[in-house]
Amino acid sequence: MIDFSQLLRPDRGEQARTITLVDPAAHEEWLAAQPNAVRDAAEMHRFSAKDGTHLLVPSPGSDPWRVVAGVKDRTSPWALAKLAQSLPPGLYRIAGDSPPALGWLLAQYRFERYRRSDDAEPRVLLTGDAAGIDETVRQAEAVARVRDLVNTAAADLGPAELEAETEALAQAFGASTAVTRGDTLASDYPMIHAVGQAALPARSPRLIELEWGDPTAPRVAIVGKGVCFDTGGLDIKPSSAMRLMKKDMGGAAHALGLARLIMGAKLPVRLHLLIPAVENAVSAASFRPGDVLKTRKGLTVENTNTDAEGRLILGDALTKAAEGSPALILDFATLTGAARVALGPDLPATFANDEALAAELLAAGAAVEDPLWRLPLWDGYDDMLKSDVADMVNAPEGGMAGAITAALFLRRFVPEGVAWAHLDTFAWRQAAKPGRPKGGDALGLRAAWALLTRRYGAAMQALPPPPVALPRG
């Protein structure tokens, strides 16, 4: 992974090219104050300070040229992303107050496991805000790791590799891990075992756990769906729907990214990370439509669709998370196509059983430009989960309100009184934006981190206070 700490450094007066940021609305005023050579260059290139554009102009200093860039919103984390993608390699500094530098770093992300990039030379930003460097670098590292994991082909990332990723993270931050597999998994986490049993023995299912922090601190449980590849099981997907199913462990990637942020910042919480890791494969051992599954909680589930497997493994993991009496549970999952139909790829569908938590989470996402959109845990749809032979079904017939009924299914495994939020995220970017290339991406990660730092740390105290309540949907 790229060393982001080398791309954002304290400004110690080194020779560097200056970047002047110009608001498009103030372009004419700025232009009028420039010398003739600059005005001529702007006219020649038809530079109007449009957001995301830049111009190289003569410099009065020792360097023969400097950069003028149009930036509409200097407070956006993506304000500098386009520049970092398009400027020549070298050292730069911003004239005046610098915008957030996250986009500068993430614009230089490259996924190079299978192909080397032609553009490997760095663009380094020197900043006077030395105090903010560590936090910006931590966020960039967490997002980049999510991208790396989601972009990795399923042949190279199965349950064992997710376990290895968790172990490496634990070693880096002095955390402890526990892994449940085999007969113990079958008896203690029967839904995780049922979903993953078709991939035995090569890619055996498991529940991966990590614990870190002061045991007396508030306990925060982070759960991530780790379906390393999803064929759909016996309700097999068509090839077009299976094409991107390497990303069905995107929830686990987000959970690992958030755990990395929590431990890297030494947030005063007791972290409990849980990743149910499986491959939903097809074999003679596949679980079947019509099978009635046991659960860790003691409920029974009639399996009506083997392609609705993510909620099954999350159900057992949520039950385990709740046994620790956490102050908060957050889960991430690439759970439903229905969420994408409703909200598209950019907005994780967000559900919460606590109004204050929902308000704070959405406000945090808006403040850091990692937007979420709330959908309701609509009690009127709970009857859709009724089964004739078991306590409930995993996927109601008809397909209506698919994201909501999936969240209602998960709610059955969260005890009353435990604050819980569920993020149904896409974990993928279909079209590139500055700083956000096509491919795996973290959607909802920074929003969750902003929530946690607001609650338990000082890093995000500048965020505006959330409203008392937000309307459902």
From TrEMBL:
Keyword Oxidoreductase: no
A molecular-function term among this protein's GO annotations: metalloaminopeptidase activity
Matching SUPFAM superfamilies: Zn-dependent exopeptidases
InterPro entries hit by this protein: Leucine_aapep/pepB, Macro_dom-like, Peptidase_M17_C, Peptidase_M17_N_1
GO biological process: proteolysis
Occurrences of domain Cytosol aminopeptidase (ranges): 305-312
Pfam families reported for this sequence: Peptidase_M17 (PF00883), Peptidase_M17_N_1 (PF21337)
GO cellular component: cytoplasm
The organism's place on the tree of life at top rank: Bacteria
Keywords of the record: Aminopeptidase, Hydrolase, Manganese, Protease
Keyword hit for Protease: yes
Signal peptide: none
PANTHER family reported for this sequence: LEUCINE AMINOPEPTIDASE-RELATED, PEPTIDASE B
Family of this protein: Belongs to the peptidase M17 family.
Protein name: Aminopeptidase
